[in-house]
Automatic annotation (TrEMBL):
Catalytic activity: ATP + protein L-histidine = ADP + protein N-phospho-L-histidine
Protein name in UniProt: histidine kinase
GO cellular component annotations of the record: plasma membrane
Top EC class for this record: transferase
PROSITE patterns in UniProt: HAMP, HIS_KIN
InterPro entries in the record: Bact_2-comp_sensor_kinase, dCache_1, HAMP_dom, HATPase_C_sf, HATPase_dom, His_kinase_dom, Sig_transdc_His_kin-like_C, Sig_transdc_His_kin_internal
Pfam families per UniProt: dCache_1 (PF02743), HAMP (PF00672), HATPase_c (PF02518), His_kinase (PF06580)
Bilayer topology: Multi-pass membrane protein
Species this protein is from: Paenibacillus nasutitermitis
Length: 627
């Protein structure tokens, strides 16, 4: 409701604007709206195209990168199978197992009976296994550390950039994971460790049991891969997308993180990982108050997910430049259009302003003005009509002066003619007094009633009276007729007392009763009943006047109601039996027209009738509060 009212107020203000301002507004809208629409659509389409191309390009790069990571891990898995095929490694591991088994048994035999260390044997085992580990390290770039352990956790390793300082702790974790395996490789996510050179390192590891030809476990091998083998490729992708990359394993542990803030941590509960469901796809998330586009792809071999987070503002950087250029061009175009619009609006409205000045002079009484017509366009035609109108007004003023003079003369004659009705009323009163003096009661009563009817009728027809006064006038009229026809008519009035004070224009009931008597009287009936009933019906007042006369045919009734609703202006005389008298009053059409003129076109008269069953005339009037 409030918004509708505000819109109407705004439209009213726009409608009241001067013509040149309306033209300026129209010109600006015609220029601004198309340019704004084109700019907005271009920016939207360009931004969407960039985002879609970025998604497609990044998804393709992610898939290729995950394929390379899978290939690298596959190479690590193959490297981990080498000890199973190297007799030298298996034999040395068996030697190490037997040696430490003997030492364990010796230690269990009692205090002081421990077998002394055989340094030559240990050195021989170390050289035999260490040489093979050095060979394994040269096979694949990035496998910076290879660890081989016997069944007792004794490690033999060779590292390019240092070994784990917590090698015993790492062995315990690996050995626990491999207990229920039968020789297959197990991939461990990125772990953080401190090297023996006191530096922090991150690596993911492939571990498997070493099984000899008799299918007996003789130890295990762990191949560490530094995250640098992933970092080089991811940095290239980040430079292109201006985003950050993550690699996460199936348990939510971070294998790689561009910012290296989440490395070796679990992010399974973060929204980023929860939205990355399926093999690949993209989605949007808000991060630190900034919207990001996330693109992900899943490895088909190990289930690792690689996710790229790209700020949307980086995606739309080029489109923002285009948007700004578009807006600058739009504002420049609007500025130029505004200057042109100002010139044309004032040029087009100058003749109208001239005509307004001339109209003001005419309003002040000066009719000696003339609009100079220079063109044949609409304004020129308007000026010609203006000049013609001024001439006609001048002529009409002269005619009105003559008519007013004649009107005053007619009013004098009308004042004189008003003496006649009063003279007739006074004369009837004198006759009535003479009849009473001569003891002629009927004549005196008839004259008295006729005098009341005449007094009621001679006043203004547009004057409003109460419904009670109208009903009293009808009673006098029927009473006077009963003197003439000796009790031929019976009048019954059924109107509630509150409705008696209802205001109504004069002489609307008596003409209808007169019409019923003079056109509906049935000679075969000794007594004619006339009923008047009034009632409230919602926001309306309905007065029904019914008789038991001859009625009328359906064709006559339809024509009568059509004429009443159309208001042709002619008096309606229903085709019913006539007594030979005239209409005896103002007539149905006159009453209907007066009601419609006074109360509105929604009110008036409607007639209902059947042959031989009488007629009902229904007056529809407004309630007093809606009058």
């Amino acid at each position: 409701m409030n918004s509708g009212k505000q819109m109407r107020q705004i439209w009213s203000k726009v409608s009241d604007m001067r013509m040149e301002r309306k033209l300026l507004l129209v010109f600006l809208l015609l220029v601004t709206l198309p340019l704004t629409f084109i700019g907005a659509v271009s920016y939207r389409n360009y931004s969407h195209s960039i985002e879609q191309n970025t998604i497609d390009y990044s998804t393709n790069m992610l898939s290729n990168m995950m394929d390379r990571v899978d290939d690298y891990i596959e190479d690590m898995v193959r490297i981990s199978t080498i000890p199973a095929y190297q007799d030298d490694i298996r034999q040395n591991l068996n030697r190490s197992n037997r040696y430490y088994e003997q030492r364990a048994q010796s230690s269990a035999g009692g205090e002081g009976s421990s077998m002394p260390a055989d340094l030559d044997l240990l050195l021989s085992i170390q050289r035999g296994i260490g040489g093979n580990i050095s060979y394994i390290n040269t096979i694949k770039r990035g496998a910076n550390s290879v660890y081989i352990f016997d069944q007792y956790g004794n490690g033999y390793y060779s590292a390019k950039s240092g070994t784990r300082a917590n090698i015993k702790e790492s062995y315990g974790l690996w050995e626990q994971k491999l207990r229920n395996t039968t020789g297959e490789a197990v991939l461990f996510s990125t772990q953080k460790y401190t090297s023996n050179m006191k530096s922090i390192q991150y690596a993911f590891t492939v571990v498997r049991k070493i099984i000899d030809i008799s299918l007996k476990d003789v130890g295990l091998i762990a191949v560490d891969a530094n995250i640098s083998v992933i970092e080089d490729q991811v940095l290239k992708l980040d430079n292109v997308t201006h985003g950050k990359s993550f690699i996460v394993d199936t348990e939510g542990n971070v294998v790689y993180d561009s910012g290296k803030k989440l490395l070796a941590t679990n992010i399974a509960d973060q929204p980023m990982l929860q939205h990355a469901s399926g093999d690949k796809g993209s989605f949007y998330l808000d991060e630190d108050g900034e919207r990001h586009l996330y693109i992900f792809s899943t490895s088909s071999q190990n289930g690792w997910k690689m996710i790229i987070s790209i700020p949307v503002k980086e995606l739309t950087r080029d489109s923002v430049v285009i948007r700004n250029v578009t807006w600058i061009a739009t504002f420049l175009t609007i500025g130029i259009a505004l200057l042109i619009s100002v010139f044309f609006s004032f040029a087009l409205t100058k003749p109208l302003r001239t005509m307004i000045r001339l109209m003001r002079r005419v309003q002040g009484g000066d009719f000696n003005v003339k609009f100079q017509v220079r063109r044949r366009d609409e304004i020129g035609q308007l000026g010609s009509q203006f000049n013609q109108m001024i001439l006609q007004i001048d002529q009409l003023i002269a005619d009105i002066y003559v008519m007013e003079t004649k009107k005053k003369e007619a009013e004098l004659h009308a004042l004189q003619s008003q003496i006649n009705p009063h003279f007739m009323y006074n004369t009837l009163e004198s006759i009535r007094m003479a009849a009473e003096l001569n003891d002629d009661r009927d004549a005196a009563n008839m004259l008295a009633i006729l005098g009341r009817l005449l007094r009621y009728s001679i006043s203004d027809l547009h004057e409003e009276v109460t419904l009670a006064s109208e009903l009293s006038h009808v009673r006098y009229y029927v009473e006077l007729l009963n003197y003439r026809y000796r009790g031929r008519f019976e009048l019954v009035i059924d109107v509630a007392q509150p409705l008696m004070d209802y205001s109504i224009i004069k002489l609307v009931l008596q003409p209808i009763v007169e019409n019923a008597i003079y056109h509906g009287l049935d000679d075969n009936k000794p007594l004619m009943h006339i009923n008047i009933k009034g009632e409230y019906a919602g926001s309306q007042v309905i007065v029904r006047i019914s008789d038991d006369g001859v009625g009328m045919s359906l064709e006559t009734l339809e024509r009568l109601n059509a004429d009443l609703s159309g208001q042709t202006g002619a008096e309606i005389i229903p085709a019913r039996k006539s007594t030979g008298s005239s209409t005896g009053g103002i007539g149905l059409a006159n009453v209907n027209e007066r009601i419609r003129l006074h109360y509105g076109s929604g009110f008036g008269i409607k007639v209902f009738s059947e042959p031989g069953a009488g007629t009902v005339v229904e007056l529809l009037l407004p309630r007093e509060e809606e009058d």
